[in-house]
Structures are given as structure tokens and as C-alpha cells.
Amino acid sequence: MSAPPSSPAIRLLPDAVINQIAAGEVVERPASVLKELVENSLDAGARHIDVEADGGGARMLRIRDDGCGMDRDNALLSLERHATSKLRALSDLDTIATMGFRGEALAAISAVSQFTMVTQRAGDPAGTEIQVNGGSIADVRDAGAPPGTEITVRNLFYNVPARRKFLRSAATEFTHIRHAFTLEALAHPDVEFTLTADGETLHRLPAAPTLLDRVRDLYGRELASHLREVRHASGAVSIGGLAGLPPFSRMDREWQVVMINGRPSGSPVINYAIQTAYRETLPGGRYAPLFLQIALPADQVDVNVHPAKKEVRFRHPTEVRDIIVEALRLAIGGSPREPARPIGEWRRRDEKPAYPAPFPPPPPPTPVPVPPGPAPSAPLPPPPTFSIQTGLDLPPAPPPAPSPSPAPPVPVPQGAPPSAPTPTPSPVPPPSTPWSTFHILGRTGPYAVLSTPDGLVILDPRSAHERILYERMLAAATAGAVPSQGLLPPVPVTLSPTQHNTLLRHLPTLRDMGFGLSEFGSGTLLLDALPADLPPSAPPAELLSDLADALAQSGRTAARDWARPLIAERASRLAVAREQPLTDLELETLVRDLSRTEMPYTSPRGKPTVILTPLRELHRKFGRE
User: Fold this and answer.
1) How far is CA 246 from CA 109, 138, 142, 214, 303, in A?
2) Is the dihedral of CA 590, 596, 602, 606 positive or negative?
3) Closest residue by Cα to residue 609 from 508, 514, 471
4) Domains of the chain
5) 3-state SS record for 398-434
6) Among residues 417, 435, 433, which one has the least CA distance to residue 425?
7) Which residue(s) pair with 7 in the sheet?
8) How buried is 342 (Cβ within 10 angstroms: 0-12 exposed, 13-18 middle, 19+ buried)?
9) Labelling 359: which of 54, 79, 155, 403 has CA 20 to 30 A away?
10) Contact criterion met (CB below 8 Å) for 449 and 441
11) Nearest C-alpha neighbor of 311 from the set 359, 253, 265, 379
12) Are residues 550 and 565 in contact, defined by beta-carbon separation less than 8 angstroms?
């Protein structure tokens, strides 16, 4: 019987291995380097920060600031692990007011890259340049430089091949860099930021007096026009920032940025509070843009629970949650305001606001002529009106004329043009649908009630219109003949880098679907045409943003057999975002068009368009069977 193997001897790891292991906690990708270095610049009092990246940041990433700088001794000491000027005792962890504090960033970054730091303290006769290769100092010398610090990180993970092979493409890594840059710029609008990629300046953000100005510089006026100020305080907690006004939203949380004591961060408690505040105003899976500033005493929040400081923990989470919910509900409550006119003046000046309440109150009732006969004991109120998309492809309705008495249903030959403003009853082809002949009884809320020989039909005009537009667009795309309508003037739409890249990948399919899209500078697309079935007043920014999110979340490569239905479904849903009163003639046309679709019973999103109640079901409920 063999003896059990002896345990291996325990040894101390070499410093180089220790630093590379520590780097794995701090440095995940080039965007992690940007975050750590920019936060050091902010702690140094910088008022101007330049970020330059080549090859997605993996080949080269440079951060230059005009902060206080360092002398030679402090510059060398900053490269040691756990060397920091921001902590002196354990108790300081309870009142952290700086962005960085662990003293690991420079040591970890220099351990897995070719690292150069040039720093100059104001008033010193010369600055200091330090070169580090894989954690080993290669050179230290005097250098002439303006006050501040410049750090250049080249060939990230060049000495750790196992980590480098997990980096994504340059375009993907730069998307993360741009996102990290955006977070820092939003958290510090009073600091000037510049971002350059592969020699091209993408962002030049001057110091902004307000967060709204910084949001407008980053995202454009279209997004900024749908934001409301958040301002609320309770006890020691203050909530500020900007909240998106429903229904303006998107399909992910990329436009939801939370800053806690000036630090871009987050917490499950905050996510839950945001979801709760918007629960009654946005459908599931939609997220309003939100730029939230939370201020509270430093001893009430623990920023040391995540290695990359991406998450915090509150001492009184329930109190913070309730205050956030109240602040957001106060900000987005009340009637929507007229949004500022976006770039391109895409909305006509005589149009209504693009985002009214989902179902506006009905207009005052008009007198209804009463036919001769015995007077009823109490007059019935007129049926309430309902609303639907402005861009319905329906014939104009002439003024209604009173009818002395309702006529019994009389079938009309298929295809006959309407000859009266309220043509009831009306035949609707094909006869296979349960509403071949129908009589408009009236409206209840947003729904229309129809009487048919087989029973009652309750119609949701919005879902019905979605189905009609969806199948029209899809049929035209399959036939290769989607009619387009031009926009004058064309509309520039600024999107996030991820959305921009997604739409560029699917540009041929989008053009086949009737969208006129072309590149218009960095992160901006020029929309000069829409499918003819969509109204010109459809919100371009929300339309393209929603399409990009849907395409990105599909998780598949570009293929026309799935991209076309997806585009048609999103476009048809957004086409019915606005509403107007619908006449009986328009309703008749809507029902006729719905009956001609292949799937008239549901919208493209699976919502029912009609609810059928057969006569036999009514007989059963009234006990007449």
C-alpha cells in the first residue's frame, strides 16, 4: 500500500506574480485603466482631462491632466502597492471622499503593460519621467512638462498572454472605453474632457454649468428635451439629476447613470427604487433615461465592497430607496411638457406634442338628435371617444350628418366605396372573419364595440393598427418593393456607440425596409426617409434607438429572415405612439384592413386585437340556453 502523497511546500510568491494577480482584480480591460487613471486625475484637482486611445486602448491609452502633479519621490512611491495619499488610518475608510483610495491602480497597471508616467509639480524646476516594463522600473529621469501628469499605457497584458487573448476586438474594447469616459464626464460636468481615438477627436466637452448641458453635449438635444429635473431631499440624503419623462424610453439601462457622492456607481437597492418609480408609467422591459445624483454623508455609504468600486452598500438602504422613489415620482408626475424642438425641426410647428398622455380625456359631448317617439326616462350619454396614431393611412372623414333612425344591417358588395360618413352596417372582406358584417355600437375608453350576427366584438384600434402596419411592411420587404417617403429636412440622430455600430451592421436590411440611413459623423446617423406606412412625425431618435436595441438583443448574426420581421414589428409599434380621435369611417377602414391581414387576432407583440363574445356565450350567461 503506497503512502499518501505529501502536501506541496508553501512558498511566498514573487512580487511580479503578486502584482499580476492583483492586476486581475483592478484591470479587466482597457476601460478599467481609463477609469482608474481618470479618477486619479480628478483627485489631483484636474480641470482639464485628455483621453487618447489607439487600437481600442489595448495598443495605447494615454491620460493627460492639469492637476497638481508630483515630485520624483512621490512619483516613485505611487508605483508601489498600497501606496496612497488618501488614507492614514483605518477610521478613514468610514469617511472616504476621494475617487481612489486603495493605492493599487498604478502598481497593478504598470505590472501588466509598458507604462510611462511624466509628472510635473507647479513651481518645480523639472518634472519626472518614469518608465516601467511589466512591473520593473526601466528608467527614471528629469523631463520638461507642463504642470500635471501624463500617463501612457502601451500593450496592455503583453506579458500575460492568458489575459490578453480574452480581450475583444478593438471596436468592442473602444465601446467600453467610450462608456467609461461618458460616465466620468457625466459625474463631473464642471471638468473639461476630450476623447480622441486613433487620431480622431470624438468628444470635446467644455466645462458645463449644469448636468443638463453635459447630457446635451454627449447625447444631443433630442434626449435632453425629454428630461425633467430631479430635486428632493429628506434628512441627510439629497437626490438630484435628470429623469426621463415617459413614454420616452429604451430597451436597456445604458442611459441610466447613477452617481453617488460624485462617483459613478450603483446598487441593487437603487435599481429596485428606479424600477418601482417607473412601474406605473412604463411597460415591462422599457427603461427611461435617468441621470441620478445621490448625495449623503460619507459614513452612510460603503464604497469599499467591490474591487473596481462599481457597487456600494448603504447603511440605511430602505431610507435611500424610499427617497429615490419619492424623488422620481415627483419629477415625472403631472402633465407632460412640450419637449424642446430637436435638431432638424423634424416635427411640424402645427403638430401636437410628440408624447401626450396615452389616452387623453374625451372632448366635451355634442348634442345628439333624438328621433321622434316617446321620450326616455333618462338620456343615454354619448359614447366616449378614443384615440389612435396620427399617421393612420385612412381616408378623410366628412362632417357627420344626423340620421333619423338606425337602419338595419344591409350587406354591401365587396370593394364598394363608402358613400356616407357613418357607413353602418358594413361588409368587410374576407367573410372568414367573424366581423364580415358589423354595426358600430360605440366606444368604451380606448376600445370600439361592434355588433355582428355572431355576437359582440371589442376592438383595440392601437393593436389592430400595429398588425396592419407590420404586415404591410413585411409584405413589401418580401416583394422587394418597400415605398419610402423623404424627410425634409433630413434628421441627424445621435446614438450610443453600441447602437450606432448595430445599425451600421444592418444598414442594407434597413434600407430594404424603406429607411434612408447614412453615416453623418461619429456616432450620428442621417435619416432622410421612412417607410411610407410610417407617419413623418414618428420620433426618429426613439425609432432608431428602439430598432438598434432590438437588433442587438436578438443575439444572432445578421439574417434577413429574422431582421425584417423584427424591424417591422418595432416600427409598427412606434408608429402608433401618438393618438387622435377616430371617426366611424376611419374605424370602418381600420376594421376592413385588419380583416385582410394573415393574423388579424393579435398584434405583432402578441397582444389581442379583438375580443369575441359569441351569442351562445351571451345566451349561456343570461340563462337563455
Assistant:
1) 42, 56, 57, 21, 32
2) negative
3) 471
4) 15-207 (3.30.565.10), 213-332 (3.30.230.10), 386-393+422-625 (3.30.1370.100)
5) CCCCCCCCCCCCCCCCCCCCCCCCCCCCEECCCCCCC
6) 435
7) none
8) buried
9) 403
10) yes
11) 265
12) no
Please, what is the Cα angle at 523 between 521 and 529, to 5 degrees? 75
Cell numbers standing for residue 340: 424642446
Task: Please list the ranges in the chain whose pLDDT falls under 50.
Answer: 87-88, 90-93, 101, 334-431, 555-559
The predicted structure's pLDDT at residue 312: 79
Task: Residue 145: name the closest of 116, 125, 172, 165 by CA.
Answer: 125
Contact of 103 with 115, CB cutoff 8 Å: no
pLDDT in tens, 247-288: 788 888 889 999 998 889 888 899 989 988 887 677 777 899
Are 311 and 271 a contacting pair, CB within 8 Å?
no
Q: Cα 155–156–158 angle (5° rounding)? A: 70
- 399, 421 Cβ separation under 8 angstroms: yes
Alpha helices in 253-311 (DSSP H): 268-277
Over residues 77-88, the pLDDT tens digits come to 888 876 565 544
Grid cell, residue 425, equals 352596417
* Pair type for strands 48-54 and 192-197: parallel
Q: Which helix or strand (DSSP H or E) is residue 116 part of? A: strand 114-120
Amino acid (one-letter) located at 161: P
Amino acid at 16: A
Cα distances (angstroms) measured from residue 244 to each of 220, 224, 267: 14, 9, 20
Query: Could you tell me the three cell numbers for 519?
Result: 453615416
d(CA 435, CA 454): 8
**Which residue matches cell numbers 434600407?**
511
Q: How far apart are CA 209 and CA 195, in angstroms?
A: 20
Q: Give the SS3 label for residue 377.
A: coil
Strand blocks (E) in 251-337: 256-260, 263-264, 290-295, 301-302, 313-314
Q: Residue 459: helix, strand or coil by DSSP?
A: strand
Torsion of CA 342, 343, 348, 354, to 10 degrees: -30
